[in-house]
């Protein structure tokens, strides 16, 4: 089998651009369609490029049992162990340190080329689904009923994939994909909302990181990436989680914190507007003034004068 390899430093990245190459490299049964492949984990031969990074330039959805799953939610175990699903977008890097044992294991692997959905509304929608950018430790963990529901959709796709290709095949499979991703959005929202104690801890730690940053790093503006990294989460996952808890994403929380701190400095110190901007980490004071006015309706100087 041919693979294209790209040298980056001392490492080699194996690039997978086609369904055929994907099925060969990962030991899946041959695909029935050039742009999509679906198989059960028990049919995967366990052949993977152990120890080498792989860039998969395809969409991939992997659903498996969660009994042996070691994924964590930031720093805690998930509640559900009946199943876990990961969603991967084109361009992400994968690697395997050990050989997976799939014999007799429940699960599904669904992979499709971006061209398969490009002409459909799903082609535009899928780029907005943030869970394709979550880390692997932020998998969607599902209950018994959710697992049965999603497996039913996988079975529908598998059944249609095994039929002879006709003018309706692609439409039907894409419609099933759309349903699958709609349920994934619903279940991720459920996952955020059913872990109240963990969410409370995350919000507390999030706020603590903000406060500590401005005590220790007054010359650097904190970003959503900075906070997500300290919480061991992807930026998108943290934003979605905070939005479900508070109605605001990470960037909005940072803005609220900055504005409240700026108000305090404007009213309790004699620092100039520029000095306040620099103390909050803004490299250019006019960016600070623009943000302040957009959030309060007043410039910093107007706010200071009126109060």
Could you explain the architecture of this structure?
The structure is a single chain. With 307 residues, this protein is of the alpha+beta class. Helices cover 47% and strands 15% of the residues. It is built from 12 helices and 11 strands. A 5-stranded antiparallel beta sheet has the order 3-10-5-8-11. A hairpin with a 2-residue loop joins strand 6 (72-73) and strand 7 (76-77). Helix 4 (144-162) runs antiparallel to helix 5 (169-193). The protein is elongated. Residues 1-10 and 67-79 have low confidence and may be disordered.
Helix/strand/pairing class, anyone? alpha+beta
**What is the helix/strand order?**
EEHEEEEEEEEHHEHHHHHHHHH
The beta-strand count equals 11
**Corresponding CATH architecture of the largest domain:** Sandwich
Rg calculated over all Cα atoms? 24 Å
Helix content: 40-55%
The percentage of residues in β strands lies in 15-25%
Number of domains: 2
The average pLDDT score comes to 83
Query: And the CATH topology of the largest domain?
Result: Jelly Rolls
Low-pLDDT parts are 1-10, 67-79
* Count of discrete alpha- or pi-helical segments spanning 4 or more residues: 12
Largest sheet: 5 strands, antiparallel
Between the first and last Cα atoms, what is the distance in angstroms?
73 Å
CATH class of the largest domain: Mainly Beta
Q: Please list the strands of the largest sheet in the order they lie side by side.
A: 3-10-5-8-11
Shape call: elongated
Task: List the topology elements.
Elements: E1 4-8, E2 11-16, H1 19-25, E3 36-40, E4 54-56, E5 59-64, E6 72-73, E7 76-77, E8 83-88, E9 92-94, E10 107-112, H2 114-117, H3 121-125, E11 140-142, H4 144-162, H5 169-193, H6 196-216, H7 224-230, H8 235-246, H9 250-268, H10 273-279, H11 285-296, H12 300-306
Parallel strand pairs: 2-4
Antiparallel strand pairs: 1-2, 3-10, 4-9, 5-8, 5-10, 6-7, 8-11
Helix pairs in contact: 4-5, 7-8, 9-11, 9-12, 10-11
């Amino acid at each position: 089998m041919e693979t294209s390899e790209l040298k980056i430093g001392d490492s080699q990245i194996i690039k997978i651009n086609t369904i055929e190459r994907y099925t060969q490299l990962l030991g899946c049964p041959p695909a029935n369609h050039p742009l999509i492949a679906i198989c059960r984990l028990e049919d995967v031969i366990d052949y993977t490029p152990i120890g080498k990074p792989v860039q998969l330039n395809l969409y991939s959805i992997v659903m498996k049992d969660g009994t042996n799953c070691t994924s964590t939610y930031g720093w805690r175990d998930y509640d559900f162990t009946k199943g876990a699903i990961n969603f991967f977008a084109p361009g992400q890097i994968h690697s395997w340190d050990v050989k997976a044992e799939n014999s007799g294991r429940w699960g599904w692997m669904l992979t499709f080329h971006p061209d398969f959905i490009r002409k459909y509304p799903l082609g535009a929608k899928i780029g907005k689904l943030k869970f394709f950018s979550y880390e692997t430790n932020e998998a969607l963990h599902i209950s018994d009923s959710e697992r049965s529901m999603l497996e039913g959709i996988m079975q529908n796709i598998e059944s249609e994939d095994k039929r002879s290709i006709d003018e309706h095949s692609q439409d039907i499979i894409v419609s099933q994909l759309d349903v699958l991703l709609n349920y994934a959005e619903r279940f991720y929202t459920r996952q955020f909302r059913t872990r109240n104690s963990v969410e409370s801890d995350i919000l507390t730690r999030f706020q603590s990181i903000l406060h500590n940053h401005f005590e220790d790093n007054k010359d650097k503006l904190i970003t959503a990436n900075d906070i997500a990294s300290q919480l061991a989460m992807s930026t998108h996952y943290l934003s979605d989680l905070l939005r479900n808890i508070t109605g605001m994403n990470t960037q909005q929380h940072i803005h609220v914190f900055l504005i409240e701190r700026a108000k305090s400095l404007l009213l309790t110190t004699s620092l100039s507007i520029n000095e306040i901007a620099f103390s909050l980490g803004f490299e250019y004071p006019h960016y600070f003034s623009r943000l302040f006015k957009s959030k309060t309706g007043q410039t910093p100087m107007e706010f200071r004068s009126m109060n």
